[in-house]
From TrEMBL, chain A:
It comes from Fusibacter ferrireducens. InterPro entries: Peptide/Ni-bd, SBP_5, SBP_5_dom. This is ABC transporter substrate-binding protein. It comes from the Bacteria. Residues 103-436 form the Solute-binding protein family domain. Residues 30-55 are annotated as: Disordered. Keywords: Signal, Transport. Residues 1-31 form the signal peptide. Residues 38-53 have a biased composition (Low complexity). The keyword Signal applies. Belongs to the bacterial solute-binding protein 5 family.
TrEMBL record, chain B:
It comes from Fusibacter ferrireducens. Gene3D superfamilies: MetI-like. PANTHER family: DIPEPTIDE TRANSPORT SYSTEM PERMEASE PROTEIN DPPB-RELATED (PTHR43163:SF6). Residues 95-296 form the ABC transmembrane type-1 domain. InterPro entries: BPD_transp_1_N, MetI-like, MetI-like_sf. The keyword ATP-binding does not apply. It comes from the Bacteria. Belongs to the binding-protein-dependent transport system permease family. It is found in: Cell membrane. This is ABC transporter permease.
Length: 528, 312
């Protein structure tokens, strides 16, 4: 018996010690990192480390961790945030966007002119070389836009191009089928990057990796990493960094740990909870960007009973957006009052928000014919947005709306919303700076108009605005669209998501972009 | 023996057919398709439909399956809808990483479980036995993602001994192998212990001891060899599990293996990639199971005799 008791005690001691060791592993990180100072930057700025001096030494290779996969290096095949960041390293567009002023600035094209509302002429720089040593010529631009007709991501982007001709070696003329004011704005997106005709003729399988950017491809392992060497014949300013690696690290917390132990110099797309660890570490900097992705709660406006705007207005009066931001994003995020990009042309928030008023919500429900409330299914993709759906479930129960949550993955959500079998959904939409990008939200033909909202006047205004060269008139058109959307509320905008990046505190040369296409091409890290 | 191997290879054809049929249909019947990932964000509904027709995704599932299998018979597993890469080449490019992790994990698991299992069996009922079993229970209870993160915190962040992830060099293999291996060791330790306990009671061991054979030789040579069969069975099964199931560990350690490849393909509904990978995985697993069965014969003369008679 006494042996049994001794053994039992021994087990307890061993178990306790094991748990203590494990617990100390968890706790020590918190204690160690809590002494650091928070450092953060805001939207649209270029990050600068301590001012370099003559004797400054730079890290030879910089490593960026990304949470999203890179599946191709062909700029015309995919256009999304993760890929665009990589495309900006190897390729250049004809024009660029000044993040601070919002103006279009020269890049491969040094100047341009609208010859008529449908004809744009661009003059190219004459000191630009591709990674294969070929000089950039107007024929490369013509070739690029011709090839774009068959690219998965680019085909829609050039569908309004009637003709692209080389006027001379360094002059290109683009003719459109109808006026399109946003063309230059759109042409800042990497899907319009210029490719080398010779590289693609020599190697049709991989020639698209040859661009005019600061970084030349070294190795690409799909879904793993992409590595680059600096292209010393780059026409613009060169970074002191010799090599660059973009690594796919799917687990955000591991990405932060690799930043903490110096394996990586920059982590993209951190969650708000992981951002806290970066903020507390004195050797790291946290960069917060006011993102332009609007998180929203949308209805299927083409299907009863949610085709009734009174019901949608009732819901809008019963939602507390601040609580949703707190629960879903730990309080980070900017409240949205209009379904429009906050850095997009035409943004107008003067109509305010629906006031939180449960009595008014109940009155609207009764007026819509549902005095005792009704059932509502919210379709939501797996992940942080489920929290938003749960908050909505709790908030709407107060006005008698019985919410059930249908959690699916994002591929299933796309299919369900395209088929129009959903009642409502929680999702996000990232807006570009071009005003016409709103077509994606409200055009009945758009795959991202998941509300199936159709309003003839809205479409008329979108078409008018994109053909209008008078800025004031365009702004008036876009304001009217937002007024209509505010009243009919097919989508309740919730908040603009904050983007978090963790960096080595000695990192510089990055241009943080609120449209998510942050530019890493000038990146460097000063060695301690 | 040869007849047995040929029969197993013949059965493999039906396994592949069954697996491909189930996977192809399940993935196609799940809501969502690959177009949600490859169509550009600004695509119109018409453009998406045109893309669907271009990829042949508008055709009935049965026709698409038959087309796929026609290609398979010719040795063509198709191309990924997402990357356009050849499925077979992509799988083979990722397989070495998975094999490395699988064998390293099994090695770690054997390294832990055999001494621990033998020690527990030799000292049945003592504190050594109980400690071994508690350790096995802990290993079994700890989820891989938790253990993986703890190991990263300790060995990468605090001590700086190993990298947090990736597959660059031997050092990057150690933490993922320990993560997977610890979980596997738990079950293997219990198996080694129980099979050793069965063997230890046998008369021939008593005879060996009576003849003056040293205890070390009695245990390590005479007892352990006969306790190996169930151990090989479990280790073989675990190997097949790791070959397809180390998804969580591969994700945490950014290990570029087959598990993560399949998981990413499932999320993007890349049907050709999923079906091709699962077919190749089932072939790999069938081969491993066959090797395990053949190993029985190597360690057990009774099974060898059965093969010789053309039995089984």
């Amino acid at each position: 018996m006494s042996n049994f008791i001794k053994r039992k005690r021994l087990f307890l001691i061993i178990c306790s010690m094991t748990i203590m060791v494990l617990m100390s592993g968890c706790g020590s990180k918190e204690a160690e990192t809590s002494q650091g100072d928070a450092q953060s930057s805001s939207t649209g700025t270029t990050s600068e480390a301590a001012a370099p001096t003559e004797n400054t030494k730079y890290k030879e290779e910089v490593v960026i961790n990304t949470g999203a996969q890179v599946t191709t290096l062909d700029v015309q095949e995919v256009s999304n945030v993760a890929h665009n960041r990589v495309f900006k390293l190897t390729h250049d567009t004809l024009v660029d966007l000044d993040i601070d002023t919002g103006k279009i600035v020269p890049k491969l094209a040094k100047e341009w002119e609208w010859l008529s509302p449908t004809e744009l002429q661009l003059k190219l720089r004459n000191d630009v070389f591709f990674h294969n040593g070929e000089e950039l010529k107007a024929s490369d631009v013509v070739f690029t836009f011709k090839r774009a007709e068959n690219g998965k991501a680019s085909t829609g982007r050039v569908s309004n191009f009637v003709d692209v001709v080389a006027v001379d070696d360094f002059t290109v003329k683009i003719t459109l089928n109808k006026p399109f004011v946003d063309l230059l704005d759109n042409m800042t997106i990497p899907v319009y990057s210029i490719l080398s005709e010779k590289a693609l003729i020599d190697d049709p399988n991989m020639g698209y990796t040859v661009g005019t950017g600061v970084w030349k491809l070294n190795e690409f392992v799909s879904n793993d990493y992409v590595s680059f060497d600096r292209f010393d014949k780059y026409w613009g300013e060169l970074t002191p960094t010799q090599k660059l690696k973009v690594k796919y690290v799917p687990e955000s917390s591991v990405s932060v740990i690799s930043l903490e132990n110096g394996e990586a110099d920059l982590c993209t797309d951190l969650t708000s909870s992981d951002a806290v660890f970066v903020e507390k570490n004195k050797d790291l900097s946290l960069v917060e960007i006011d993102g332009t992705t609007c998180q929203f709660f949308g209805f299927n406006a083409s299907k009863a009973p949610w085709d009734n705007k009174l019901l949608r207005q009732a819901v809008a009066h019963a939602i507390v957006k601040e609580d949703i931001i707190t629960a879903t994003e730990n309080g980070y995020g900017k409240l949205a009052t209009t379904f429009w990009g906050n850095s997009q042309f035409g943004y107008y928030d003067g109509f305010g928000d629906y006031e939180y008023d449960l009595d008014e919500a109940k009155r609207l429900l009764a007026e819509a014919g549902y005095p005792n409330g009704l059932d509502l299914e919210i379709t939501v993709p797996t992940g942080y947005r489920v929290t938003t759906a749960e908050l909505l479930q709790a908030q709407l129960s107060q006005i008698g709306i019985n919410v059930t949550i249908n959690e699916v993955d994002s591929a299933a959500l796309t299919s369900i919303t395209n088929d129009g079998t959903h009642e409502s959904f929680v999702y996000g939409l990232g807006f570009n700076t071009a005003g016409d990008d709103i077509r994606r939200a409200y055009s009945p033909k758009s795959t991202t108009n998941r509300s199936h909202y159709a309003n003839d006047r809205v479409i008329e205004l979108i078409d008018l605005a994109v053909a209008e060269f008078d800025t004031d008139k365009r702004l008036a058109d876009y304001k009217e669209i937002q007024e209509i959307a505010h009243d009919e509320i097919p989508v309740i905008p919730l908040y603009y998501q904050t983007l978090f990046f963790g960096t080595n505190k000695n990192l510089g040369g990055v241009t943080w972009n609120s449209t998510s296409n942050t530019d890493f091409s000038g990146i460097y890290v000063i060695e301690k | 023996m040869l007849r047995y191997i040929l029969r197993r290879i013949f059965l493999m054809i039906f396994v592949v057919l069954g697996v491909s049929f189930v996977v192809f249909f399940v993935i196609n019947l799940a809501p969502g398709d690959v177009l949600s990932k490859i169509a550009p964000e600004d695509a119109t509904l018409e453009e998406v439909e045109a893309l669907r027709v271009e990829l042949g995704l508008d055709r009935p599932i049965m026709f698409r399956y038959l087309d796929y299998m026609k290609g398979f018979v010719k040795g063509d597993l198709g191309k990924s809808y997402i990357t356009g890469d050849d499925v077979f080449k992509t799988y083979m490019a990722k397989l070495p990483a998975t094999l490395k992790l699988a064998f390293a994990s099994i090695f770690v698991s054997i390294l832990i479980s055999i001494p621990l299992g033998i020690m527990a069996a030799k000292n049945r009922g003592s504190w050594k036995d109980n400690v071994s079993m508690v350790a096995a229970l802990l290993g079994l209870s700890m989820p891989n993602f938790w253990l993986g993160l703890l190991l990263i915190l300790l060995f990468s962040l605090k001590l700086g001994w190993f990298p947090t992830g990736g597959a660059i060099g031997f050092k990057s293999l150690i933490l993922p192998a320990i993560t997977v291996g610890t979980g596997l060791a738990a079950l293997l330790t219990r198996t080694v212990r129980s099979s050793m306990l069965e063997v230890i009671r046998q008369d021939y061991l008593r005879t060996a001891r009576a003849k003056g054979v040293k205890e070390k030789i009695v245990i390590n040579k005479h007892a352990f060899k006969n306790a190996l069969i169930p151990t090989i069975t479990i280790a073989g099964t675990q190997l097949t599990r790791v070959l397809g199931g180390a998804v969580i560990t591969e994700t945490i350690f950014a290990w570029p293996g087959v598990g993560r490849l399949i998981l990413d393909a499932v999320y993007s509904r890349d049907v050709t990639m999923i079906t091709g990978c699962i077919i190749l995985k089932s072939i790999t697993i069938s081969i491993i199971l066959l090797i395990v069965d053949l190993l029985y014969a190597a360690v057990d003369p009774r099974i060898r005799a059965q093969f010789a008679k053309g039995g089984k």
